[in-house]
Amino acid sequence: MAKSKQTKKSGPAPTTGQGRQRGVESVSYVLIVAVVAVLANVAGYFLYHRFDFTKSRLYSLSQGSERLVSDLDDTMEITAYFTSDLPTPFNATEVYVRNLLDEYEAASNGNVHVRFIDPDDDEDREDARRDGVTEVPHQLIENDSVSVVNGYRGIVIKYLGQRQTIPVIQDTQGLEYEITQAIRQIVREPTPVGVMEGHGSPSPTEGLTTLAAALPHYELQAVNVGEPINPELRALLIINPTEEITEAELSNINRYVMNGGSLGIFGGAMNVDIQGVAPSASVVQTGINTLLERWGVQLGDAIVADARCGRVPLRTPIGIPIPVAYPPAPIVVFDDAAQAHPSLFRLNQAPFFFTSPLNLGEAFTSLPTCDPETESEAPCGIVLGRSSAEQSWLLTGDSIQLQPREPQEWGSTINDQTGPHTVMVALEGTLPSALDAAEGDDTPATATRSVRVLVAGSGSLLRDEFLPNPEQSRGQMTGGIALALNSIDWLTQDADLIAIRAKNIEDPALDVPQSVTSAQEEALTAAEEGDQAGASEAVQRYNDAIEEWDSRKKVYKFGMLLLPVLVIFFGLGRWQMRKNKRANLQQLRKRYTKGA
Question: Residues 273-310, buried b or exposed e (16+ Cβ, 10 A)?
Answer without folding.
Answer: ebeeeebbbebbebbbbbbbebbbbbbbbbbbbbbbbb
